[in-house]
Model the fold of this input.
Amino acid sequence: MATLTLESLGKTYDSGASAVSGINIDVADGEFLVLVGPSGCGKSTLLRMIAGLETVTHGSIRIGPREVNRLEPADRDIAMVFQNYALYPHMSVRENLSYGLRNRRMARAEITRRVEEAARILEIGDFLERKPRALSGGQRQRVAMGRAIVREPSVFLFDEPLSNLDAKLRVTMRGEIRNLQKRLGTTSVYVTHDQLEAMTLADRLVVLRAGKVEQIGTPLEVYQRPASTFVAEFIGSPAMNLLDGVMEHGRLAIGTATMRLPDAHCGPVRVGVRAEDLRAVPGGTQGALPVRLSYVEELGSQRLGHFDCAGARLIAAFPSGQGLSEEMALMADPEALHLFGADGMRLT
Amino acid sequence: MQNKRAIFGAKGLPYLLLAPQLIITAIFFLWPAGQAIWQSFLREDAFGIKTTFVALENYSRLFADPSYLNALKVTVVFALSTAALSMGVALVLALAVDRTLRSARIYSTLLIWPYAVAPAVAGVLWWFMFNPTIGILPYLLKGVGYGWNHALDRGDAMTLVVISAAWKQISYNFLFFVAGLQAIPASLREAAAIDGAGPVRRFWTITLPLLSPTTFFLLVVTIVYTMFDTFGVIDAITEGGPAQSTNILVYKVYQDGFVGLNLGSSAAQSVVLMGIVIVLTVIQFRFVERRVNY
Done:
């Protein structure tokens, strides 16, 4: 149990390329922090820096009160679950689980106790004597988790641990990881590129972009108040709609449609609106956008209409029964609009 | 693998297509092997005028002959030492390459070159360096008080042929070890590092066990190499001497057959060698194919 503090952390390669920079994150004891971002945003590098598998060139990493920048991975009191599980193929499940403990010369009785305990929690007791290749993907995943648990570390690190599983198993394992982490109360850092996984697992999530923190917050905060157009488009499915508009004297104009907005800003803006905040209104309503239907996606519980709005693409979610016509008008409440400046940052 | 089957209309075509391979096998392997087996049951007189059928007498004489048993022992020592030396050095070099990223390619290319050197040339190369009269190494060894002379000392002779034979084979083993090491996912070693295993422990508990299929394959290949392809090394350096101390089986076949003209015994020795290589090949296919450790 410990806190994890990253202070102006950065890594620059010998070639001068910067992988991550200026990272300031405080992870509370027992918190589940998710690092999310597109490929190449530096999230895995950041995790590997915490693990000690990548060197740190700037700033510091502290686990509890202890700075661990220069410590070997083994001395940092962390455990990591790898994307490909990294189970030792020549060892049985039991040996895989106990390897880290045996290396630390723990008493044999204690090793047995911990392995049995982890096997019980993860329900892998039946195949402790099997080799990893004789296990299914989900079972391997559990063994990889077990190897982290037996160590009873201060911090768990997860590097996209669910990306090799099929969709259904992924949802199940997601729930199990969440429950397990709550039960053990171990501080955890989890890397994923899947925004849904990030939303469902995180106490707080960190959206990374090009090696920098774009936004930190609880999943709902990030969803409801994205700090930039990047976050707005990345978090949430379908992605938030973004339209070009102009603010003038408390009025927002998007193409021909105008509406009152209590905002003092003046000039061109990017207007963000979530698919579920749009609703169909009769043509000619004040502030409604005239749109043209291009196609419909049926999701069962709802239907997503894909529209063309004066050259921009727009997605709106409707209840499954609603009829959609070729020419429609869509509108959102002023409170549901997100305004972003020309630089992509949130205005209010 | 075998679900794709071509259907030939004409009966003869498949045989025609296989013919080149079959003819080569028949002419260059089956026929000489058959000749050797037949020859091993015969004995010729000293002038090659009369040939007598003696059944297995050549074999029974062979295994009662102290010089043949000595050759057998020498071969085992030579094969195991060469395998140990060439594989050990190759593994160390491969580990070094696996750690280096930048110059790995140049380094690897340089290390592969010795493989292109013919065994006899390699033998001569080492023979010069270790020549008791003009060689540089005996000169240096004299400096530390060791009088090197592989023409007189049995240990020196064996050491020299082992070094020469191993040197050539290091390249081959090195290539396979590098490939084997690169097939081990980096995450396994990282996981082991997090699991508290230092570099040495990581090597013994993770890297080496995962390399075991490669190691076993190379062991068999290297032993076959030392038993059959090292004729040139022996012939160029020691000619089996001093006092039979480096007379390995394959060299004795040549000495007894071509130099001593005892064709029956030489043929019997060839057949024994053939038996050994068949056994080694079977071992290789049975065990290497289904990966040794996991």
